[in-house]
Each structure stands twice: as structure tokens, then as C-alpha cells.
Amino acid sequence: MTDQTQTSQKQQTRQPWRWPQPLAGKNSRIWYGGDYNPEQWPREVWQEDVRLMKQAGVNIVSLAIFSWSRLEPAEGQWDFSLFDEVIDLLGSNGIAVDLATATASPPMWLAKAHPEILPIDEDGRTFWPGARQNWRPTSPVYRRYALEMCRHLAEHYKDNPYVVAWHLGNEYGCHNLYDYSDDANAAFQKWCEERYGTIDAVNKAWGTDFWSQRMTSFDQILVPRHVNGFPNPGKLLDFKRFSSDALLDFCKAERDAIEAVTPDKPCTTNFMVSGAIATGIDYDRWGADMDFVSNDHYFTPGDDHLSELAFSASLMDGIARNKPWLLMEHSTSAVNWRPVNYRQEPGAMLRDSLAHLAFGADGILYFQWRQSQAGAEKFHSAMVPHAGADSQIFRDVCDQGRVLSDLTDAGVLGSRVESSKVAILFDNESGWALQHPTVPTQKLAQFTEPFSWWKAMADLGITADVVPVDGKWQDRGVVVVPNVYLMDEGLADRLRDFAREGGTVIVTYMSGIADRSDRIWLGGYPGALRDLTGVRVEEFSPMGDDFPGVPDHLDLDNGATAHDFADVVTDTADDARVVSRYTADKASGMDGVPAIVLHPYGKGRSLYVGCRLGDTDIAGSLKPLLGDLGLAGLVRSTPQILRVVRVSPDGTKFVFLFNRTREAVSARVEGEVLVASQADAGTAAAAQVAGEPETTEGTIFPAGLIVSRVDD
Ligand code: GAL
User: Fold this and answer.
1) Separation in Å, CA 120 to CA 125, 128, 134, 241, 243
2) What gap in Å lies between CA 137 and CA 153, rounded to an integer?
3) Which are the catalytic amino acids?
4) Whole-number pLDDT of residue 528
5) What is the CATH number of domain 31-177+262-410?
């Protein structure tokens, strides 16, 4: 490898983990509740709310997320009366409060007095007030007002025993991630100066000799506003980094203002870690600055739902570094923001909650407690729907409260997710770089390849962990590197060391192609990993169907089919074994080209998969290689069941089984059954082996699950 600009800002220390403590006199329970917006309702409804919350087993709510216009109805006029009353009502009824800093949506008076806080899009258009998050992350004016709000709230509630956590902002960047204002421009210039030190270093990182973009001073740097051609990829990537960092800086300023007054209460903010929606925030980096991390997750309609949930919840466990995290929002049924807002099928609500729990969430909250009567989210489901408490949803909410309480009593708190032997690496920044309009194909969406690998492993009966690229994966047996396009020498070294010590590294196409500044590693792809993989690629062969006669697929001689993308592998190392080749017509130049290559490396090995196979064909291609890859002992005979285990320090195991299919599936249930939903937990098997946990044969119906406990 040549020496290329390597600026990694990822080596951070992480905040010690701190969790919201129970109200005085109470024991820790799995937290259960939702966003509560009492300002939308008359006082009488608050009384009913608290009665119903107690009935449902709710023990926490997130409060005041969008309440600035009530808390400060005019500049400098503070009015906490509504929230004093509500917090007192909640707390005296045993319901704790996760109190928001209320800064997610500025009041109308602020935008009117200071239109310079409003974000600007890349075409120069203003985002006017009328929705939410209409503020610039880099506006010093907005920051001043927001921090004033934080200080007032913290001072006012510092001794309130019912406030157990602070909820910083809300889903930072959901609507204001990319801002192209003059404030953003000045902040971007400063960010570049801090990151690179000299303008020449910026020139080098961005390759500005291309198209005469060389700069001689930092004030020539411009945020990537609307341009008449393709924007500089290095700059665009850095702008994405900057945008995530600018919001993090804002969030940390809120945290610091709060912590200065109430250092005893932990702070969090709700992430949007999804396995389906590309995110512009580098959540793994953000996780380092939170006392505990939280996530909002909304279901993907259709067959992928449970897999997508598992993928993102596992990634949350990785971001949380295996500490408890909070599911801050999900939905009891339909959302309101898709073109078609599908309802949840019976059983899915509890199944989803327990799936998040299985992957490490020690608190399950919803958006929102009571379905709004007016406003943009009035058709979004809630814990108390428009129909009222006499409804299936509310009955399910109450059932779930009982289940979570039973699981607390059974000892689930304190257990952590058992690590898988297989880690799938996830790199947000690689996804950002591959979003550029000039990459070899626009089909390289961020989650496609990692998610296919997760599903392929699940199809083999292996529950893989999704681990941030800078997280902890070195203790696994197999590491998958799917489309980790950006790779510095440090990461390449870590992968090599891992293989050298006996691990298996599975590398896909479009991994190890460029350094962290998006400058290509030269000499043949994958430049950062040529020696590890034992392959050399001279060209790519993307596939499509947009012109007659273009290649739209490639067959492999192992029966699999590649779509969208393939590497033209031109050389393999002498000690490499080509496991599979393409079979194509001679004219294509792909006939006989290696597609899958196994390469010994130190005490371990790598497997190179040079094309997009999709989950079914990945699983099929891996099957004959399980022994070679160290996966043989990990496959389970019932891949229709997703199995996730949480383990307590004393060795007690909580085994979660979820049906991944739309058919009834029979399942081997270990130990004592704690929860069976849409399932028949079966009866004890006739022959119980001494010393082994009791096993039953159960049946799990669609959307069903079984949780059992196996004592050590
Ligand atoms: C989240 C947000 C909530 C609510 C919810 C609806 O993005 O934090 O306030 O809008 O989505 O699904």
C-alpha cells in the first residue's frame, strides 16, 4: 500500500454507561412506556391517561419533546406550570419521566424574530417554519436560545425526583441534516481546517487537481451547493461527515448544559438506526458521547420485517457495546409517513418488542401514548388509539405490560446478548461514499449487501451480529466485510491480523477499494486487501437492464446467479483455490472468470465473493464451504426460527425463538417457558437427558415467539 491521506477521527473514548434509575423505593424494571404529549389534551384526559398507564404497566414516558412553545410562549417568558402538574401526576403514580430538552421544534416566535436560524437547501431555498426541526445545526443564534432552554429546564427540574433521564433533542437530523446556509459554510471551513490543518492536505484528500478545483485558502471551501455537474466526491463525503459532526456538536452542547446542572441524571438521544433506511448520522461515533443509547425503529412492511428489525437491533447492540439500550420509539400498528401505511398483523406488536429486548433493549417505548386528534400524525398508531381503551391495541398494550413485568421477575435485567461467532461489519461512511452519483452503479445502496449477508446467515440457522466497523469484532470466528468500500491501513491490518491468528474473513466486491478520503488504492482492486484475499481485479462488470443486450445477470458454476455487480478477477494467488467461476458466453469475457475464491492466510483464511448474489444464493454458495470457513458447527437445523440468547452473569440463559416465516414451525424449546405468544409451547419431551436442560417440542405460528429460561 502506498501512503495515502489517513485521517481517522474514530478513535474515541466512550462515556461510561449510565442507565435511568428507578423512582425512589422501587426496583429496576424493564422500562415500558412511550412519548407522552399532554399539551395536546385537556386536563381531564391526563387523569384518564395516568389511570390507563397504570393499567398497562407503563413505568416511564418521554415528555416535552415538542413543547417549546408551551414552555417559553414568548421570548424570556418561562412557564413550567403544565409540566410541573403533569410530572407530579405521573411521578406520584409511579411513572418516571424521560424529560426532553424541548429543542427539536422551535416556536414560531423564534423563527419570526430570527429567520437566520432557518436551514437552507442546496438550491438556496429556505425551510420555513410549519413542520419541525426548522433550525440550522450550526446557527449560533439557535444554539444560544436552545441552550438557554436546556439551562432553564435543568435548573427548574434539577431536584425533581420523577425525572430519571434527559432526552436530548429528538432524532437529530431527521429533517435538518444537510444545511447549505452561510453558517454551515463557515462551520464547514473550520471543520476542514481542524481535520486537515493545511489547505494542501484538503487538496490532496479531495483530489482537487481534477477539474481545476485546487484551493489556496480555507475560505475558498464551499459547502456542496447546487452545481452544474458532478460534485467532488471527497468533498461530498467530508460534508456528510461534517453534517453528522455538526449535529453531534450541538447535541453535546445540550448535554453539557444539562450535565452542568444535573450531573446525576443520564442523558440520551434517540437514534434512527435502521437496516433499511440509509442514515446520514454516524451513530457509532455518537454512541460514544451518550450515557446510554436509544433507538427509534419502525417496521418495514412485508417479508423482510423481522430480519430488518433483527439487523438494526443487533447493530444497536454493537453501538451500545453490548450494554443495555432503550427502544425509544416504535409503533403499535401503522405509521403515517409511508405512501401506504400498513397495519401490523396480530401478534406482531409483542413479537417486535420482544425481538428488540432479545437484542439488548432493556426498555420498550412507543411513539406515542395517546393517538393525536389533530396534526400531521393523527393517523399514526399509538398505545391508546382513537377508538379508546376499549380496543384490541390497548388490550395488547396491557398484555405486553404484563409480559415485560413477568420477564423482569424472571431475571432478564442484567443479562446481555450472547455474542455470535459471526460478525457482519457495518460502515456508515462507506455507504455515504457509495451514494455518489459517479460510482460504477447506483445499485450499491448502503444496506443491501450487509443485510443480504445477515439474511443468508439466518437462512443457514446462524444469528450473526451486525457490528460497527470500529466496534468489537476481533473476538469472533468469522468476520464478513460487505461493501466496506473505504478502508484505511489500520482496518486492513486488523483484518489481516484476525485472519493470521486463525479467523475467517469473508470479503465481498466493493470492499477495500479506496482510502478514507475516497482515493483509490492503486495496483488492482481490492487494493487494501489484495494480499489477504489473494485476488486482483482489473475492472468491474456492473449489470443492469436499461439497454437492450446489456449483461443483466451472470451464472456461476455452483448454481448461483449474480445480479447488479461482478468483479473481473484477473489474477489469483498461487495458493488460492477458485471455488466457483462464471459460466457465460465467450463474447462477454466473463466465462471462466473466478467468482468465489478461498485463500489461506496465516492460521486462517479469506473467502472472496466478487459479485452480488443476494441472500438465497449467498447461503447456497456457502453451504459446501461451511467446513472450510469454520461455520460448520454453527448452522442450525431450523433456520425458520430466529434464535437469540441473552445470558446473565451467573450463566442463566434466556432463549428467544421467533418464527421467521408465514407458516407454523416446530421448535425445540430449552428450559422453562416464560412467554409463548402465537405459539404452542408443547409438553416435556419423554426422554430428558440427565444434566441437560429440559426440552420440549413446541410450535410457533406466524408472528409468534417463545421465550424460555435455562438455568445454569
Ligand atoms: C419519529 C419521531 C416522532 C414521530 C414518529 C412517527 O421520527 O421521533 O416524533 O414523528 O417518528 O413515526
Assistant:
1) 5, 9, 10, 18, 13
2) 21
3) 171, 329
4) 97
5) 3.20.20.80
Q: Side chain identity at 352, as an amino acid letter? A: D
Contact 615, 574 (CB under 8 A): no
Average pLDDT, the chain: 95
| Dist CA 543 CA 582 (whole Å) | 14
Cell of 263: 450531573
**Ligand 1 atom 12 nearest Cα:** 335
pLDDT in tens, 168-199: 999 999 999 999 999 999 999 999 999 999 99
Options 2.60.40.1180, 3.50.80.10, 2.40.30.30, 2.30.30.520; which CATH number does 641-710 get? 2.60.40.1180
Residue ranges covered by each domain of the chain: 31-177+262-410, 422-634, 641-710
- Cell readout for 625 is 464451504
For residue 380, the CA-to-ligand 1 centroid distance in Å is 9
Mean pLDDT score, 269-297: 92
CB atoms within 10 A of CB 266: 21
Instruction: Measure the CA–CA gap between 542 and 539, rounded to whole angstroms.
Output: 10
User: Does ligand 1 lie within 6 Å of residue 617's CB atom?
Assistant: no
Fold annotation for 422-634: Rossmann fold (3.40.50)
Q: Using CA positions, which residue lies closest to atom 9 of ligand 1? A: 367
The proportion of the chain whose per-residue pLDDT surpasses 70, expressed as a percent, equals: 96
* Residue 367, ligand 1, Cβ within 6 A: yes
The DSSP symbol for 282 reads -
Give the lowest-confidence range in 57-71, 420-434, 581-595, 683-697. 683-697
Band (pLDDT 50/70/90 cuts) for residue 684 is low
**Residue among 120, 137, 144 nearest 243 (CA):** 137
Between the CA of residue 85 and those of 35, 91, 379, 501, 632, what are the distances in Å? 17, 10, 28, 61, 60
Q: Which amino acid appears at position 357 of this protein?
A: L
Residue 271 DSSP SS3: strand
CB 341 less than 6 A from any atom of ligand 1: no
Interval 341-397: pLDDT, tens: 999 999 999 999 999 999 999 999 999 999 999 999 999 999 999 999 999 999 999
- Beta-carbon contacts of residue 21 (< 8 Å; ≥ 6 apart): 28, 164
Tell me, in angstroms, the distance from the centre of ligand 1 to residue 367's CA: 7
Does pLDDT of 29 surpass 90?
Answer: yes
First to last CA, the chain: 49
Q: How do residues 493-514 score in pLDDT, each as one tens digit? A: 999 999 999 999 999 999 999 9
Strand locations in 558-690 (E) = 561-562, 567-572, 577-583, 594-601, 604-609, 641-647, 653-659, 665-670, 672-680
Tell me the HSE value of 206 on the side-chain side, using a 13 A CA sphere.
28
Residue 662 backbone dihedrals phi, psi, to 5 degrees: -105, 15
Atom of ligand 1 nearest to the CA of 270: 8
3-class DSSP assignment, residue 110: helix
Task: Tell how far the Cα of 35 is from the centroid of ligand 1, in angstroms.
Answer: 9
Q: How confident is the model at residue 690 (pLDDT cuts 50, 70, 90)?
A: low
Q: DSSP H helical segments within 293-388, as ranges?
A: 305-319, 348-358
For residue 456, what is the enclosing H or E element?
helix 448-459
> What single string gives the DSSP state of each residue in 143-197?
HHHHHHHHHHHHHHHTT-TTEEEEE-SSSTTTTTS---SHHHHHHHHHHHHHHHS
pLDDT digits (tens, 9 = 90+) for 108-124: 999 999 999 999 999 99
C-beta separation of 596 from 579 below 8 A:
yes
